[in-house]
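User: Can you predict the 3D structure for this chain?
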Amino acid sequence: MVKKPKRMDGYVRVSAVMGRSGDAYISPDVQRESIQRWADYKGVEIAEWHVDEDESGGTQDRPGLVRAMDRIEAGDTDGIVVARLNRFARNVAGAIGDIERIQTAGGSFASVEEDIDPTGAFGSFVLTILLAVATLERDNIVKTWEVSKARAIGRGVKIGKTPLGYSRADDGTMIVDEPAAGIVREAFRLAASGAEAEAVKYIAGATGRQPTTTTLRRIVSNRSYLGELHHGDLLKLDAHEPLVDKRTFAAAQLDGGAPRRPSSDFPLTGIASCATCDGPMIGSRAGKGQRTYRCSASLVTSTAKRCKAPANITARILEDHVVDHLAAAMEGMTAEPVGDAPDLDAAEKQLDLAQRELDLFAGDLGARELLGESGWTTALEQRATARNDAKVAYDAAARETFSGSPRIDLTDELADLTPEQLGSILQAGVDRVIVTKGRTAAAERIEIVIGD
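Assistant: Here is the predicted structure, written as structure tokens:
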């Protein structure tokens, strides 16, 4: 049995504030207050506080958590307490591994809201289930998003901003929008004949905007003008009326290749652009490995015209600002979790079977004599655990069957996505992010164009 802890460390984690509120978001102060109340009630001293801000629960490699774990293994504290389990982890394997480390070191783990004592067999099972739910919350938004995108593409609905020359019908599909469509056709014709500069000037005169060669490249490489819909690996041919034929499209392609796809470390690659030259910004690592977005025309390896005032910005600042705006746009949006409906009949049969096996074994005096008191107790505990497992599964299936699948709040989970997952969502929801050179606040330097 683990001894009752006297001194434990308090651990607080916040992914990113982003203006969030509601039950799924707990501020650092609220987490501290919850932990302190629990400690006062239990007679436990909070020896040291550890706070991880802007840290995802998808990984256990966080500075504050690492220090707390080191202190437990060094014997400087009796354990760790969190306000809510998902503040400790959203990753089952990593969390279980850390809790086993805590217990191996003779320490204790406590979660205030769930009131968990993982030192017993049933407590450990409950802990595993709750951590699995925390992981499911994070994974479901990605799965739901992918399914939603596939369904939208299948219906002929473009994900992202409506291209010049089209408008949206009531069902979300694209229809030709004249006279803007004529501007696109003429721009393609000029580009196909090799008159790039003339094409840029034509677009400027026809639209009143200030395009660059990058703007022209973005237009003529957009396969939506062939009547196709693309998003990642998703493709639908003949989704809407094309504005150009395949030969004109092929001839209009400019040197420079296709737009860069976002890397796993830089989800805004291909979206962020420099306000000065309209050139793309690319991700790189500055001193001490800090992630940064820089105007590509400022790099010595660039073949483009040198940018006069190249923009650069810390990746975390830019990404958080964009996610904040996307979260505001998605506020109140929910989605059904992806997965099969629970089989309540099967869960009930499994519970009945586990209960009968437990009852029969508990009354089997022959087995008790054969196994001895210790062996019989162990076997009985195993069957009791199996019955409890089946009961939890049955209760969950019953709740989901009669109340419907719990809906996922999309905005609450954005902060815990990996950069690669975030990149997929940003590509779908954000058309352009324009960054101006300077050192003022992010809101003054960043213009975000949300897709239609």
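The first strand starts at residue 7 and ends at 14. The mean pLDDT is 77.
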